[in-house]
Amino acid sequence: MQSWFAEHPIVAYIVIFILLTYVYNRVFRVNQKLLIGKEIVLYVMMALGSGMLLIFQHDKLPIIQCLLVAVGLMLLVRVRYMVEARQKRKAAAAGKRQ
To answer: What's the total number of domains in the chain?
Structure first.
């Protein structure tokens, strides 16, 4: 996988940018919307950061794999929260019946 991304740097850059954007939006974004100018500056800075991470990826560091692990862990936590919410709803429904 590492060598394939080394042979296809544009695809690697796009994957890094998408994963980085997902991680930012799910973890670091505040609840309020930013102004459009600040939003543009933010995504330009993330694009530049993705370029830096692409250089590290090209130097044989597992940047994409680490981002995939981060996204996987975030999805696992989201599933856990959904299961806990479902259990609380069932417990509340069972408590109302009695």
So the answer is: 1
